[in-house]
Design a protein that fits this description.
Blueprint: H1 2-21, E1 25-31, H2 38-57, E2 66-72, H3 77-89, E3 94-96, H4 101-114, E4 117-120, H5 127-135, E5 140-142, H6 147-161, E6 167-171, H7 175-190, E7 197-200, H8 209-217, E8 222-226, H9 229-241, E9 247-250, H10 257-263, E10 271-275, H11 285-293, H12 302-319, H13 324-331, E11 337-339, E12 342-344, E13 357-363, E14 366-369
Helix pairs in contact: 2-12, 3-4, 6-7, 9-10, 12-13
Amino acid sequence: MHLKRSIGALLALSLSAGVAFADDITIAVVGPMTGQLANIGDQFKQGAEAAAKAINEKGGVDGRMIKLSIEDDVCDPKQAVSVANRIVANGINFIDGHACSGSSIPASAVYAESGAVMMSPASSNPVLTDDAAAKGWPTIMRLYTRDDAQGAFIGPWIAKQYAGKNVVILHDKSAYGQGVADAVRKTMNDAGLKEILYEGLNAGEKDYSALVTKLKELKADVVYFGGYHPEAGLMLRQSAEQGFKYQLIMPDSIASPEFWQIAGPAGEGTMFVFPSDPQAKPEAKEAVEKIKAGGFVPEGFTLFSYATIQAFAEGIKRAGSDDPAKVAAALKDGQPISTVVGDVVFDEKGDLKNASYDINQWHDGKYAPIKQ
């Protein structure tokens, strides 16, 4: 009788373990699903959904299906913290997000304290992972590049390309915008070119005519603007209305058709830095075709969000567990992880190693890399 009970207990235990292992793996996808930057949230969502579908169609992660929970932080720091608290309260341990550095940085503290793995496919401010490393938070990561790396790439290029020209550096006062503008300013200055104006503007305004007048009076040849596409598009349109043209150079935030919808023909020739075109990589071919077949062009951060889901799946496989600390450790083991943006390797801080960039240029409503 005791033997029967023991066998029954073991059978119940094995069944319960099987059921537990068969549970879905839930990943929260967090970004600005509404608001001025909703196009970035849509890129996150489209990329994550395509990745989850592709992985699930091939049997999931060791037989477990990936389930997504889509969350909206509107790129607002306070809402980001609120969303993060709700995510961890729901027992979700894997986060594909956030987008804006101003949201990711405060939200990261919530995830770190709960032990969840946060991997941003867009936030570039170095503070995100630098602070996490300093505080001993091993589960805060990013599958994207850093502002200082972007600055080291484009700052010297601007100094060489526009030596002797009037260069202005603007930013939108956000953690992202000012962070990348400061990184570009430093490396440009170090390379021997000093800006004639360094200034912050107020994001969300509709009238930048006074700023345009100032740029015109300063005879600005080049404007580097750390910020997002709504303000950039408005500045260019209002500059065109005053008959003033300059070379606008931006960070990665304007890799979106919405930039051209706002700027129109005034956006012609605008340049921006972006990690080497993920859509052109052979590893992305199948994913790009499927996403396009669904009526969406995988621009901007789409494929980085896709790759984040792939990284989580690979980390869980390598760890043999969905314990977030073990998954984070497995992702940082130095072995390349195959993704649609190519093989990625994370350093001890959770940053990508060996990032590479393109300088892209807008022409007639589309953008493409330029030859350097």
